Amino acid sequence: MPSLIPLANVPPEMVEQLLDRAFGPGRHARTAYRIREGTAWLEGLSFAALDDEDLLVGTIQVWPVALTDPEGRAHPLLMVGPVAVVPEHQNAGFGKALMLASLDAIDQTVDAAPPLPQVMIGDPEYYGRFFGFSAESTGGWHCPGPNDPSRLLVRCVNPAVLPDEGMLGPWNSGERTGLAN
């Protein structure tokens, strides 16, 4: 069973080294980086996984992003990811534990209202089966870079509240998402 700690307790350079090992040196060119460009990950929703020897083996970050509809209205979302685990510890449950911790933290952030919808780029079968993400509502959504539309996923209590069309990008409003950073 992994030990999970707040990601804020890990030195930033260690997080960057882990992300480089998990995704390779070209990771900054990925579309997900463009979507969250200029934002800071949300500390209360982002975690690190330690192995039995207390070594950093995985991380998950959650970011404030928005879907801007054709009328120019920004609809705040939370972008989940990257979910990163070093190669030698992949398929050992670290990623799943990180996802569960982050989604639980998201679900607990709001008292009487449902949490903000969550978006991610990932395997629809895996993230759908275990975590409730789906590409059913994202067909008209666009990204600032190449993407496979079947891998653009959302998790939302009521997907009918989401715009059918829009462009994903950083949440750059003066208003906050209600989640402390």
From TrEMBL:
<dbReference type="GO" id="GO:0016746">
    <property type="term" value="F:acyltransferase activity"/>
</dbReference>
<dbReference type="InterPro" id="IPR016181">
    <property type="entry name" value="Acyl_CoA_acyltransferase"/>
</dbReference>
<protein>
    <submittedName>
        <fullName>N-acetyltransferase</fullName>
        <ecNumber>2.3.1.-</ecNumber>
    </submittedName>
</protein>
<dbReference type="InterPro" id="IPR000182">
    <property type="entry name" value="GNAT_dom"/>
</dbReference>
<dbReference type="Pfam" id="PF13527">
    <property type="entry name" value="Acetyltransf_9"/>
</dbReference>
<keyword id="KW-0012">Acyltransferase</keyword>
<keyword id="KW-0808">Transferase</keyword>
<feature type="domain" description="N-acetyltransferase">
    <location>
        <begin position="5"/>
        <end position="155"/>
    </location>
</feature>
